[in-house]
Structure formats: structure tokens, C-alpha cells
Amino acid sequence: MTKRGVEWLAAAADNPGECRQVWADDPRMPVLVQTGRLFDVVSVDQRLGTEMFDRLRLSGMPFGPSVIDRRAQRVGFFLGSGSHEPFTRQLQRETELPPSFRYLGEGCAVVVPGPIPLSDDRYQWLRAPTRRPEANPLRPVALATALVASAELLARIDRFGEQYPTPYAAVADLTDETDH
Questions:
Q1: Strands 109-112 and 31-34
Q2: Residue ranges of the chain with pLDDT lower than 70?
Q3: pTM of the full predicted structure?
Q4: Does the N-terminal or the C-terminal CB of the chain have fewer CB atoms within 10 Å?
Q5: Using only C-alpha atoms, what is the Rg of the chain?
Q6: Is the distance from CB of 146 to CB of 55 less than 8 angstroms?
Q7: Strand, coil or helix: what is 140?
Q8: Taking the CA of residue 58 as centre, how many other CA atoms within 13 Å lie in the half-sphere pointing to its CB?
Q9: Residue 175: its pLDDT value, please?
């Protein structure tokens, strides 16, 4: 994380100076910061979140900082504050039954890792903030689209695993189809 990323996150804390001091003393220390002022967060379960992260990264879709809480098994995606309406509107366009998520906006808070977490820390950055993210109206749209697409992909993979509990079962079924 860059110095500008630290400043941006510290600004969301109730006491930015105290937050900066905590991180100066221990750059691994997680801190609770308010959502809704500088950013909102969409939180999903870890399996879905890591799939979303990969889809967003590999597709080149716009997205901001992302954090993982390994103990709670949750992934949080940062959006600009006030992104709830465009995010939910895009979800409604994508599906009638959206996957489970939590939207943390005004009046909520999120725990963020320190600027230099280690690989075995509970809270880690998947994508650390390098500066104050620029406002981008495509971020909530991209995040909602990735949420639905990732959930659909995981559901298909789960159905495949149920249908074919072993690799042999999948091959045997394929062989039966080609014999006819």
C-alpha cells in the first residue's frame, strides 16, 4: 500500500491521526473504519469473493480495493460512497434472484488490514488502495455483473460435482453418450 492509500483509508477513521499512528507503530494492525463517507463496501462469502476478484482482474473490468477476512471467510469490495442504487439496479438487470451479499454504506463500518499485513494475518488486502480511488460509474456495474456471473459459474461447478462425484463417472457418462 502506498502512502496516499494509507492517507485515504486513515481519513475514513473516526480519528485519522490516531489511525496513522497505529499503523506507524504496527503496519500489520487492522483498524475499524466507517463506510459511507469515503467509500462503501460490498461483502460476500470468501469462495464467491475470490472468484469475483479473479473475474474482475482477468477481464480488466474496473474495480477498487478489495480485502479478505480469512477467519470470517468474507471478501469486501470497495465502491465509491453512494453506489448502492447503481449497484442494486445492475443486479436487477442481471438476475431476478441475486446472490447473497452485504452492502455496507452510511452508518456501517469495516475492518481493514494495516498497510503491510503478512500472509498469515486474518485481514489481508487482495488489492490494496494506492491512492484515493477515482469516481468511476462503471465500478458498481462491473461489481454487480461479476457477482452474478461468478455465482452462476460456481453453481454450475457445484452441479457438475454432484452429477459426477468422480472423474471416472464423467468419462463413463461421456462414453455412454458417444456409443449411441
A1: antiparallel
A2: 161, 163-164, 167-180
A3: 0.87
A4: C
A5: 19
A6: yes
A7: helix
A8: 8
A9: 62
Spatial distance between the Cα atoms of 92 and 110, rounded to a whole number of angstroms? 25
Region for residue 71 given its phi and psi (left: phi exceeds 0; alpha: psi -120 to 50; beta: otherwise): alpha
Identity of the amino acid at 65: P
Q: Which three cell numbers stand for residue 110?
A: 469495516
How many helices and strands in the chain, by DSSP H and E?
6, 7
pLDDT at 34 (0 to 100)? 93
Cβ-contact 154, 52 below 8 angstroms: no
SS3 15: coil
* CA gap 23, 31 in Å, rounded: 9
Distances (CA, A) of 113 to 21, 81, 177: 14, 20, 52
Bin 63: left if φ > 0, else alpha if -120 < ψ < 50, else beta: beta
The 3-state DSSP class for residue 127 equals strand
